[in-house]
Amino acid sequence: MIGALPIEPLTRAAFAAFGDVIETDGARHFEINNGSTTRFHDLARVDVAAEGGHVLVNIFRARPLAMPLAIAMVEKHPLGSQAFVPLEAAPFLVVVAPPGDTVEPDDLRAFLAEAGQGVNYAPGVWHHPVIALGRETDFLVIDRGGPGNNLAEFFFDEGDRRIVEVSRPMVATP
Questions:
Q1: Domain residues of the chain, as ranges?
Q2: For residue range 95-130, what is the model confidence (pLDDT) as tens digits?
Q3: pLDDT tens for each residue of 153-174
């Protein structure tokens, strides 16, 4: 194993190279439905059209992984974006690396998505599969369906794995 991977706060600026942060704070918004609803507008660039793709709307039920977590693999979706939005007020961990043919352990970055935040990975961004914290969590996932190979996986050698650990207690609000 190599050094621990620091966990950064998830902000639009820090995450911009990897995709979009989906949240209402600071988002463009306006009133609709005769003033009974606030629309937070254009929160993520869903990109699934490559090679005849179409939008999929899914729910993933993620179980927490044991901490500390050795990052053994990452994956990417070269033909489309992939958005994760928790369906409850639950934090989750995001581990990403820039697009490319391969990924190095030092390319990895970790972000803590707080309750009320989601992410949209840009096409080709390496990321660890969803990491729920504290308890089983359902995520609304918007990604690409259709022809073509939209999944690549990269496995780190055992000696090249980074360790990530959330040090504060993670309790999702029921």
A1: 7-164
A2: 999 999 999 999 999 999 999 999 999 999 999 999
A3: 999 999 999 999 997 655 444 4
Query: Helix (H, G, I), strand (E, B), or coil: what is residue 95?
Result: strand
- Which tokens belong to 111? 């972000």
Token pair of 160, please?
């090249």
pTM over the 0.90 mark = yes
- Measuring CA to CA, how many Å separate 110 from each of 63, 66, 79, 127? 18, 16, 23, 10
Fold that domain 7-164 belongs to in CATH: Jelly Rolls (2.60.120)
Residue matched to tokens 């992984």: 65
Q: What DSSP assignment string belongs to 27-89?
A: --EEEEGGGTEEEE---------GGG-EEEEEEEEEPPPPSSEEE-EEEE-TTS-EEEEESSS
Residue 12 CB partners (closer than 8 Å, separation 6+): 20, 21, 26
Please list the residues that pair with 38 across neighbouring strands: 31
